[in-house]
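User: Could you check the structure of this?
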Amino acid sequence: MLKKNYLPVLATATAVLLAGCGSSGSNPGSSPSNPDAIPEGTTLKMAILETTDIHSNVLGYNYYSLTEDTSLGLDRTSTLIQGARAENPNNVLFDDGDVIQGTLLGDYQAAATPVSCSGTLAVHKVMNALKYDGGGLGNHEFNYGLGFLSQITNTDFGVAGVSKPANCGAPGFPLVLSNVNSVSSQKPIFNPYAVIAKQFTATNPSGAAVNVKLNIGIMGFVPPQIMDWDQKNLAGKVYVNGVQETANQYVPVLRNAGADLVVALSHGGLDASPYSPKMENGSLYLASTGIDALLVGHSHLIFPQAKEAQAPAIDASLAALPKPLVDSVNGFVNGVPTVMAQSWGRRLGIIKMTLVYQSGKWVVQKPQTTVEARGFKYKDGVTNIAADPAIAPIVATEHKATIAYAQQPLGTTTNFEMSSYFSLVGDVGAIQIVNQAQIDYVKNFLATTTDATLSSYKNIPVISCSAPFKAGRNGPSDFTDVAPTATPATPFGLQVRNPGDLYLYNNNNLQAVKIKGSDLKNWLETAASQFGKIDPSNPVEQDLVPSYSTIYNYDVFYAEGNALQYQIDVTKAVGSRIVNLSYQGKAVAATDDFIVATNDYRAGGGGNFPGIDGSKTIIKSPDASQTVVSNYLQKIGKVTLADNGSGQSWSFVKVTTQGPVVLRSTPGKLGIAQAIGLARVKSEGALDASGFAKYAIDLSK
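Assistant: Sure, the predicted structure tokens are below.
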């Protein structure tokens, strides 16, 4: 059914219970639990299950390398779900957003061969089969435009210019989004909340089993930054409110609607900075709004600390949060049970709760609440669980079609392995070609423009920046690797899948900003904050990169002819690391002008780079960055190490350390560093708990 318009809740004992759009499992009318039907002191044990940031990883398969990947996929999450449901018969399953985008499967169904109204996205087909109870939205849901999102969720957004869908295939569970409103209607584009009535089995004071109804209210939130990241899709059509203000508005509404529990589905991480309605990761501030449980995502991290044997350590960004407020061991934020189930289906969030019926309402027994972000190796800490065999047949047709699409030829060859395994120590094999494509585009744009102002910029140096988008953020299999054939003399033919491996985000569009040398220095300093501060006198092992959670902010700059050069001193504090910054052999002055080719995310302020906030943008290309890279590859016809993979614009300031310095990357890749002469990568060490190999890095090289 189509989404109902938002209705004010009736101030009576019986409330209107709103369900999400396109939901066959909605609850069009129900009432709060009947106090007379539940004996005082009745105990209910139940579990809230969470997935988040699936990013179209339906199967454990890598469409860029065309290989199986047993470390991810909703097919294995399904096994976790079945296990958790067996342990906790009273359960609800929610998703926290970023479902539809992230793999070639998502791109194929949204862009290459868009799914029709009569069809349903592959990922939604699987989620329907798994009988989700509700879901939120993520920022990446908006990447393919409001029209597509409206269709695949069968939701009338009430947005001017976006057609009302006609009974299209959609999730069979309520979708909620509380903080995004239509400009034209001034109402939420999705139902801002839903109340899901569940029949559970409880235990009365005499020990007998009794059937009870529990009303679970859900709200959903996305980062306000969607207005920057997807400006081309959203500007003038929707607006976003702050998460805390919105929650304060809807929590009382949900209580009045009969919600016994209120759960926030927040597609945002945990940030203890002072609250702002514009916070990207404002989930921490939802914990003070009267909710009972908090499901978070967006950051692709594990919260709380994983509990399986040999579990990876909590991410440094989470470990640094104030301990009186955030309990990262037990999973509480300001006293509210909170879970983040990583990403790509690799974990299942489980909040186990005990409720006692007291004075006519269900009361959560916090001391009996436990929180877990369960991974594939939870049984023994070593072996991945098996995939659920029921999942693959559901999407067999879409999977086969995506593989065929991925293998279509580009008409381009390469003679070297374009990878990101060692991007953080100087390998530009997977970055230089992106920067070259962006420079080529911007220079051609300026050379052919009829705009007088832009034409006057023709003599300003054009440089480019790009990040290693796939460089370990999502585990040891999450690296770019466009490999040649075994024989170097035999060039490797590139395929449709390869540009997506080089440039992950198909929603980014190319843009260009005009900046000063001072801006460039600040930009580089912010990028260099990805490195830890290395103490040369420390005899203990030190991580060169303590956290991979924001690796997409490690911008590497490049200029034609390798004219731009700079060094990074990792012994210095953040903000004081860039030295010897030069262009064409001359030190870059604060007043020098540059045009930087980048993407709309960065140009619009993404990543909070000083001075880069949209005000310096001079070119807003209609072309997607991934398309720019693909077109450039086809244009040049042949990619070689000498011309496209060896232009190292930066290096470390040389320093000798007393103890080992390590970089975590995919095991078995030392040969790649040796093949390109990256001498600072000395040797491959042991595996860590996450499956990364610890490579020894010699900073004196």
